[in-house]
Amino acid sequence: MDKKVTVVGAGYVGATAAQRLAEKELCDVALIDIIEGLPQGKALDLAEAAPIEKHDAHITGSNGYEASDRSDIVIITAGIPRKPGMSRDDLLSTNAGIMKNVTQQVVERSPDAVIIVVSNPLDAMCHVAYETSGFPKNRVIGMAGVLDSARLRTFISMELDVSVENTTAFVLGGHGDTMVPLPRYSTVAGIPITELLSKERIDALVKRTAAGGAEIVGLLKTGSAYYAPASAAVEMAESILKDKKKILPCSAYLEGEYGINGLFVGVPVKLGANGIEEVIEITLTKEENAALEKSAAAVRELKELLKKLT
Ligand code: APR
């Protein structure tokens, strides 16, 4: 393939993302992890599925970063996942250390890459990757909104018994309990769900979306969600690799947009070959704005805490 994506962290999210990237024949994949044998084993296993899955993407696994040389995109999933009873924020100091170390190594080998951050707590980890990499803000992007809106779309489709393909959903704000799902901008075949569902039902779907990650953690007990997070990261990567210019909700470094300054917060962005090519500003009602401000305040708090810890 003429494109290369490095996935750091060959755990559940990373290996699933590697599988999807390869099976969609989007790029070659370098899978990296600190556990000896793990990335090598998963890469070989994925390579051995290729003849059956009918793709020619090369997948290599390693503990070092040589294989990541000149990647177009680096997806960082390295870190520890949540266990029941833990919030994403509980992962803060451990994952910040991992993120810093990984970013330093990645940047040396791929100075022109776009970094997609997946590790939690997402918005805070974006700050670590942004500050450590020294990359311009368009090349450090957090995966959150695509996942959160996919969850809301799933719940809308279940509720109305319609194809998921007919649904769109918008979720803004930080990737945490304060995320801001926007029912007015969430539709079924172009019809806002506010026309199709009662306020009570919408509130219930929105609540389930905000707690969507915790619902999976509660069921799995030993880790957190990975199929949908991997799909979300790969949708972002695809839009960049193919310069599709999809509008997707992602965590982006804001400098005044939505009245927020110097923070990574989830907003709609246009993703193309240059990473974030535009932050789309949509008009929000007073209540929506207040919810976004509250969510941004939660991200800011975490960023301050991170400063104290590191
Ligand atoms: N360098 C490379 N890999 C690392 C490092 C490091 N410094 N530290 C940890 N890892 C690897 C682990 O060895 C592990 O294989 O990261 C992998 C993480 O995989 P899992 O434990 O399976 O976690 P996963 O479910 O994939 O979640 C990863 O994504 O959604 C977020 O909250 C989640 O932060 C978590 C991340």
If you had to describe this structure to a student in words, what would you say it looks like?
The protein is α/β, with parallel strands linked by helices and 310 residues long. 43% of the residues lie in helices and 20% in strands. The chain has a six-stranded parallel beta sheet with strand order 3-2-1-4-5-6, with helices on both faces. Strands 7-10-11 form a three-stranded antiparallel beta sheet, covered by helices on one side. Strands 12-13-14 form a three-stranded antiparallel beta sheet. It folds into two domains: 4-142, Rossmann fold (3-Layer(aba) Sandwich); 145-309, L-2-Hydroxyisocaproate Dehydrogenase, Chain A, domain 2. The chain has helices at 12-23, 38-53, 92-109, 122-133, 145-160, 199-210, 212-220, 227-241, 286-309, and strands at 4-8, 28-32, 59-62, 73-76, 114-117, 140-142, 167-168, 171-172, 180-181, 187-188, 191-192, 246-255, 261-272, 275-279. Strand 12 (246-255) and strand 13 (261-272) form a beta hairpin. The site of adenosine-5-diphosphoribose has 29 residues, from helix 1 and helix 3. Residues 8-14, 32-35, 38, 77-79, 81-82, 91, 95, 98, 101-102, 118-120, 223-224, 226, 229 line the site of adenosine-5-diphosphoribose.
Structural class: alpha/beta
| CATH topology-level name of the largest domain | L-2-Hydroxyisocaproate Dehydrogenase, Chain A, domain 2
Mean pLDDT score = 95
Euclidean distance between termini CA atoms: 39 Å
Radius of gyration, in Å, reads: 19 Å
User: Strand order, biggest sheet?
Assistant: 3-2-1-4-5-6
| The CATH H-level homologous superfamily of the largest domain | Lactate dehydrogenase/glycoside hydrolase, family 4, C-terminal
Bound molecules: adenosine-5-diphosphoribose
Unreliable stretches (pLDDT < 50, length at least 5) are none
Largest sheet: 6 strands, parallel
The arrangement of helices and strands along the chain is EHEHEEHEHEHEEEEEHHHEEEH
